[in-house]
Amino acid sequence: MKRKKDIAFISAFHAPFIEEDIDFLRNHFEVRVQIGHGVLALFKVVWAALRSDIIFCWFASVYASVAVVVGRWFGVKSFIVLGGVDVAQDKKLGYGIWTSPWKARLVGYALRNADRILAVDPALKEEAARLAGYGGGNISYLPTGYDCEFWKPAGVKVPLVLCVAAAADPIRADVKGLDILIETSKSLPETKFILVGVSTGVSSALGGGSNVIIHPHMDRGRLLPYYQHAKVYCQPSRREGLPNALCEAMLCGCVPVATDVGGNRTAVGDTGILVPPDDCAALTDAIRRACMMDESAGLKARARIVALFPREKRNRDLLRIIGETAA
């Protein structure tokens, strides 16, 4: 019986989309998971890479850079998934690994020397090549995929606006445009807004009127009914990769309203409303219009994600790319 190849799976943190890739890869490979950060994590990354046939990193990071160095020295094929923050250099917001000169040098090396880079949105491919100063010939577009049977409509939609954003600190809140959403809510006092994923400290700073309810992070099971009940899903971000929450909401039949940045356009297409970032007037008008749309608009949004981003397609393409590169 042919031995399964070993994969060193490396990330600085846990996330549902990362866990989904781990679970899938375990069906085909022996997976050594190294998730964590700090100096000790760097040594664990080296040890995992040395014991494996393939290196797979979620996000271009210092840890990914160390793994790619090991791969180059010892002939181990390396893969990096680009998610968004790893190709960000927004000095105004203080956001992105490229705002640090020394980290930028390490990440640039990793991008230029990894065997394959997998970008979840075409815009990230272009940005990565520009920042790393090379042609980007090793970068492919591979979007994330979604469980269309778990994320699905149920029951009657109610006239509320939902936004899900992992905002544990003020920088993340700014990147997600939550200040703009709160300002917009003041122009729509009769419309209920629900924000999910916001830490207590950030929630206090954001404020919001009586029509705004803010919740901390929720797991998938608790989050699903919010998607299923909300008529409108709003993604007011200033930067995005391919936003998971937006795609999940569309699968649940929400009418999408999003800023025209990064992967928001890729997700929404012609099924919702795109507005410029930092434009409260445009966002207010878009939300008002979306609230008046009938059920067919939400079903059209769902159909787009089902067609373009099913989890099965990502799994199939991921396995093919790994097989082609690490044969």
Structure report:
- With 327 residues, this protein is α/β, with parallel strands linked by helices.
- The chain contains 14 helices and twelve strands.
- The strands form two sheets. Strands 2-1-3-4-5-6 form a six-stranded parallel beta sheet, sandwiched between helices.
- Helix 3 (62-74) packs parallel to helix 4 (101-113), helix 4 packs across helix 5 (122-132) and helix 10 (244-251) crosses helix 13.
- The chain is globular, with a radius of gyration of 20 Å.
- The chain starts with 5 loop residues before the first strand and ends with a helix.
* Helical percentage: 40-55%
Main pleated-sheet profile: 6 strands, parallel
- Nearest-integer average pLDDT: 95
Run of helices and strands: EHEHEHEHEHEEHHEHEHEHEHEHHH
Rg, nearest Å: 20 Å
Count of distinct strands: 12
In the sheet with the most strands, the strands line up as 2-1-3-4-5-6
- Uncertain runs: none
Distance between the termini: 17 Å
What form results from the Cα inertia axes?
globular
Q: Give the class from helix and strand content and strand pairing.
A: alpha/beta
Give the strand content: 15-25%
Can you count the helices? 14
